[in-house]
Every structure is written in C-alpha cells, then in structure tokens.
Design brief:
The complex is a heterodimer. Chain A is α+β, with helices and mostly antiparallel strands. Chain A contains nine helices and eleven strands. A four-stranded mixed β-sheet of chain A has the order 9-2-11-10. Chain B is 62% helix and 4% strand. In chain B, strands 1-2-3 form a three-stranded antiparallel β-sheet. Chain B is elongated and about 60 Å long. The chains are: A alpha+beta, B mainly alpha.
C-alpha cells in the first residue's frame, strides 16, 4: 500500500534516515485492540477486510471446522482462528482469535527485508508493505515472529494486513473495526487502547478469569495490534499465539552488525593484496630460473 | 607429433602445458558464474550494494537469476574440480610450506620446500571453495523461496539464511586471495588464459611438478593434465 509519506520511522534496507519530518505520534501511535472475550466468531471482520481491500481468496474446502479459510493467504489478510480447549475443570472453551499482522514496534520482517523501501513503519506504528518495491525473496517470512507474511504464487509479492493504512491516513478506522458487531474490535491511540484493555481486564477478573490480561509482547517492543486474553498466562491456547515472541537470534546475526563488518573484511582483504603488491612486489621468473630449468632438463635427459 | 607436454615459445624458450583447453574452459565458466552470482548476491547482502541489482534488470530479476547463477557456478566447479581432486591432497611438505608463510609472502621461494603441481595455498583455496560451495548449495536450496523454502520450518530457513551469507562472505574472501595470488605470481594468469608456463616458472614455483614433467617427457605414454 503506497502513499507518499513524510512520517516514515523505519524503511527496509535503508541505512540513512527515512523522510520523517512529519513525525508526530500522539498517544503512542495507533493500535487495534482485539478483545477475545467479546468475540463471537462471526467473521464480519474477515468480510470487511476482503471488501475494503478488494480481495477474493480461492474458495476452499470444508474440513469440518469453523475456521475458513484454513490459513492466512496472500489474499486473506485476517483470519478467525478457532481453538477448542478443555479447561482443568472439564469445561470446553471455544477460544477465537482474530489473527493477522501484529504491527510490531520492532518489526522482524522489516529487519530481514533486503529491498529498499519494500517495508516501512510509519510514525503511527503501522508496518506496511510497499509491494512495488518487493522483490519476492521471502526474507520477511523468515524475519516475522508471528508467521504472517504470505507470498503470492501469482505475482511473487508478499502481502499482509496493512492495518488499513489508507483509511487511517484519512482519519478512518480500519475496515474490520467498522464491521465488528460486538465491540470486540476497537481502534484508537495505543494509550487509549491500553486504558480500555485495563478496564476490560478488571471486568474479566471480577467474572472469575483471574489470569485475564493484555497481550502486548515486550520482546518485539510491543505491538500495535493487542489482544485482551482471558488466559493471558497461556497465550499458546489461542492457536499457538507465541508466549514470548522476539526477532530470532539467527535473524539478528544475519541482519545485524555482522553485515557491514563482513563488507569491511572483504574490502580489507583486497586492500591487503594491493599493499602487498606495492610493498613486496610481484613474484617474477627471470633468465636465471630459465637457465636453471634448462640445466635440470639436461641432467634429467642424461639420467634416463 | 610434438610432445603434448612441451611446446616451443616464440622466443625459443621451452613452454610447458599446465592447463588444457578443457580445464581452462571449466575454470573460466566457474569464474564468470562466480562473478555474476557474487554481484547478484552482494546486491541482497547489504543495502549499500543494492544498486548492483540494476546490472541484472532490477530487484525481482536479481532474486530470480541468483540461484541459477549459483547452480551454474557449482556445476562448472564440479567439472573443474573432480579431475584435480587427487592432486589437491595435503602432504607433509605442504604443512612445512605453510609453516614458512613468512618466506612465502616475502617472495623467498629458495627457502621453501619443493612444491608439486599445486602448493599448499592453492590446495587450501581448492578445499575452501569446495566446502563453501557445498554449504552454499545446501543453505541456498533451503532459502529458495520459489521452490523449496516452504518445505522447511521457519527456524531452519533462518539458520540457512545466516549460513548462506556466511559461506558467501568466506567464498568472496577466498576468491579475492585466489585472484590476487594470480596477479602476484607472474606467469600464473598466462597459465590459465593460454594454457602454458615457461620452464623457468615451473622450476621456480612448482619444482617437484617440473621434475615429474621431465621424467614423463621421456615416457611416450605420459600426459599433461
């Protein structure tokens, strides 16, 4: 989703400062709050996402579960994931989680991307793919701690939730928020959402969900999509929501200071060669070597 | 029929065949593919070098072509390396040669043990290139998103990406040393472009090999390879 922006906080594969003269960020940027305790699994958000973004996924097959489609795809940017969980008390809980890009404050996809400007992070916290700069390498897939980006087999570009950056840019809330009938999805500044979540958590605790809490994982610097979970102590219950997501050590080694260091070593290797040549000089063969070689050849001839 | 191992140069100085046209073709195919694979890989290695992707028709084309350039390099290298594998085994005199690296880099060859067809430095470069290419192949397949990456877990892909970058970095350094050594030791470039070296060159840099050539020259069934 491309928009000329002057509020870019981070830009992929860019070592200089991106255009950020318009860098106002009020209330910690924007955030979507997903209250799993209020979600009824109606999928209005999925439909709204398709509708606003003009996406039509392929019709899949029914495998006897409510989850449809079965996974995020290049044309399904959000998905209700359904988990049937048996509690220690013997009750059955139906935990429904709206999955999609978490818009990390420290985005692994952006860190891994080798193409300048294919991924940007705006001052408001939205992490956006600019597909016209995408080269289709899929490094962002390896960088993401939440398994979100999907490579299209049609055009070899990656796609994911934009947090409706085009709507947010003109003061509208994301399409999924607009469609949610129960108020499970709310949108506002991150601070407001944290405050709203705190009230919700207090309410849940008073109803017996003593481990209710906010999912805003610190390992990725916090996220601009947050969850209110009834079981915040066990996020894995919600279709493997990672308990402690962070950018993998391998990705940090791969994309960290080792890269400029490796470039420097390569340059230095060539430079050492250059100075060896100018200080020690070439190793040449002269007439004496030719004469000695002839000598040896004559001796060898006599021997045989 | 002239002796296959020796020819006469224009100045009358005897020339020795070091690399046959087949070996030269395989070497330069490997070299060209290496340069292209390295340039396209470096474009994705660091943002400062992304401009190199323009040489390949832009970012997506760089991403599309790079794995095939790498495979071309690997195949050419296998064809080049397989016949010379046995000649690159490290021998006791090679370790002695390495221990006297100070004499090596100071052009004091008279103080070094006699060298066979390849010296210890060349053998190390041979083995480094071989194993780094194996590493690049294995890790490259894992991160080849169009065909194979989907078959591996994300953690395997992450590690493969690091391994690929590390092997590529080491290979580039190895080849820089290889190219510099050819520029440094005069007569080496000629060996790989024209195929021949002077007897003096063979005597000075690869005396044990030169002795071997002399004995073989009297044996009609001997071959240069």
């Amino acid at each position: 989703m491309a928009l000329q922006s002057l509020d870019i906080r981070r830009r992929s594969a860019t070592t200089t400062r991106p255009p950020d003269i318009r860098s106002m960020s009020i209330g910690g940027g924007v955030a979507k709050l997903i209250d799993t305790s209020k979600c009824i699994g109606c999928k209005a958000c999925q439909v709204a996402c398709m509708e606003w973004n003009d996406l039509r996924d392929e019709i899949g097959t029914n495998t006897g579960q409510y989850q449809n489609p079965h996974d995020l795809t290049a044309s399904s940017w959000t998905l209700m994931r359904f988990a049937e969980v048996e509690t220690p008390k013997g009750d059955l809980e139906w935990l429904i989680r709206k999955d999609g890009c978490m818009h990390c404050a420290d985005p692994g996809c952006l860190k891994a991307c080798p193409s300048p400007g294919a991924i940007v992070q705006y001052a408001n916290g939205i992490v956006d793919f600019h597909e016209e700069n995408c080269i289709g390498c899929g490094y962002c897939i390896a960088g993401c701690p939440f398994d979100i980006p999907r490579l299209s087999q049609r055009d070899h570009k990656v796609y994911k939730c934009t947090l409706c950056s085009d709507r947010v840019a003109v003061g509208l809330e994301p399409a999924c928020i607009k469609a949610c009938p129960t108020g499970a999805l709310v949108f506002g500044t991150k601070e407001d959402m944290q405050q709203h979540a705190a009230e919700r958590i207090e309410d849940l605790k008073s109803r017996g969900f003593e481990h209710a809490g906010l999912y805003d994982p610190a390992g990725v610097g916090g996220t601009h999509v947050m969850y209110v979970l009834h079981h915040a102590d066990q996020p894995e219950l919600y279709n493997d929501l990672p308990a402690d997501p962070h950018i993998s050590l391998a990705v940090r080694v791969w994309k960290g200071r080792t890269k400029p260091l490796a470039l420097a070593v390569m340059g230095l290797t060539a430079l050492i060669g250059f100075f060896h040549y100018t200080r020690v000089g070439p190793d040449e063969t002269d007439e004496r070597d030719e004469a000695a070689a002839q000598d040896l050849a004559r001796k060898s001839g006599k021997q045989s | 029929m002239t002796d296959p191992a020796t020819q006469s140069g224009t100045g009358g100085a005897p020339l020795i065949v070091r690399y046959t046209p087949e070996v030269r073709t395989r070497h330069w195919l490997t070299a060209l593919a290496f340069v292209l694979a390295a340039l396209s890989g470096l474009a994705l290695f660091h943002p400062a070098l992304f401009g190199l992707s323009a040489l390949f028709g832009g970012g997506p084309w760089t991403r599309i072509l790079h794995p095939y350039l790498g495979l071309t390099m690997l195949l050419a290298f296998v064809a080049l390396a397989a016949p010379m594998h046995g000649q690159n085994r490290m021998e006791p005199r090679d370790w002695e040669w390495l221990r006297r690296y100070r004499d090596v880099i100071s052009n004091r060859e008279e103080k070094l043990p006699e060298v066979g067809r390849y010296n210890a430095g060349q053998k190390i470069i041979y083995h480094a290139a071989l194993w780094l290419l194996v590493g690049l192949l294995l890790s490259g397949v894992v991160i080849w998103r169009s065909y194979f990456a989907g078959y591996f877990t994300v953690d395997v892909v992450r590690v493969a990406a690091v391994v690929h970058a590390l092997c590529a970095f080491l290979l580039v350094c190895t080849i820089i040393v290889h190219v510099y050594a050819a520029i440094w030791v005069k007569g080496s470039v000629r060996a790989m472009t024209r195929g021949t070296v002077t007897a003096g060159w063979a005597f000075k840099h690869h005396r044990a090999w030169y002795r071997e050539m002399l004995t073989h020259a009297t044996n009609p069934r001997s071959r240069a390879n």
